[in-house]
Design a protein that fits this description.
The chain is an alpha+beta fold. It contains six helices and nine strands; from the N terminus they run αβαβαααβββββββα. 35% of the residues lie in helices and 16% in strands.
Length: 250
């Protein structure tokens, strides 16, 4: 994405790119929709700027892509050795002279010399569009978790969003937005612990407690307890229920 940003700023937006089937360019995941396939972060980014991604579909096509890499890994290393290049800075200075000579020697005339690069639309921020973007749910405490870190969103919206977009740009910075507007945030170490407030008990209807001489209560003197007294107590309880039922009907 960093290379694509720098190329686009220099030449403009291309119509399509021709790449192999590496997982960077083509996602191995399965899509939940039958008519669509899962896209890699690279494909999503190029789709946002209107660039079509074409994957090499044959060994011959993939070989055309890998051929230049093999040449640079072989010829370029030997050329730098002859020039006694030993540092990264020296290699970059060497490339500024070597690449134009290499292209002039091995380039081929295209069928059409028409420049099909498109200008970057006004208002488009390439660093934002060409970034890793993932949707996250905004928690009730206005926090977002991303890559094991927590971010506290500062309230600044007219309508609180349910989801936000987290961007990780090529320079390593993290940006959070609610679709269009960028939100202010600060990184926190951990979530605030919820303070449990004591529960206030509501009104509960107290159960009716029978009186001491209620027939449902057993005899206090266990010496007088017998099967006959138990039978009489049950009869008394039955009559009491019948009187209560008759009172309710009236």
């Amino acid at each position: 994405m960093d290379s694509f940003i720098r190329y686009t700023k220099l030449n403009g937006i291309v119509g399509s790119v021709y790449v192999d089937r590496h997982t960077t360019y083509k996602s191995p995941k399965k899509s939940l929709w039958e008519d669509k396939r899962a896209l890699s972060q690279f494909e999503k980014a190029l789709e946002r700027v209107g660039v079509k991604v074409i994957h090499a579909g044959s060994p011959q096509a993939k070989g055309r892509i890998e051929r230049l890499f093999r040449t640079l890994q072989d010829r370029l290393v030997k050329e730098m050795r002859l020039k006694k290049v030993k540092t990264k800075e020296g290699a970059n200075e060497f490339l500024e002279k070597y690449l134009p000579q290499f292209n002039e020697r091995f380039e081929r005339e295209p069928k059409s010399k028409e420049d099909l690069h498109r200008q970057v639309p006004e208002g488009m921020v390439l660093e934002r569009e060409l970034s890793v973007q993932e949707a996250r749910v905004l928690r009730n405490d206005n926090t977002v978790q991303y890559e094991g870190k927590f971010y506290q969103i500062e309230k600044g919206w007219t309508r609180r969003p349910k989801n936000v977009i987290v961007e990780r740009r090529v320079d390593g910075t993290v940006h959070i937005r609610d679709g269009v507007h960028e939100l202010k945030y600060r990184q926190i170490e951990e979530l605030a612990k919820k303070v449990m407030e004591p529960k206030i008990r509501g009104y509960f209807k107290m159960a009716r407690v029978p009186s001491e001489d209620h027939p449902w209560r057993g005899p206090k003197d266990l010496s007088t307890y017998s099967h006959n007294s138990q039978r009489e107590r049950k009869k008394g309880a039955k009559k009491e229920r019948e009187r209560t039922a008759a009172f309710i009907l009236l």
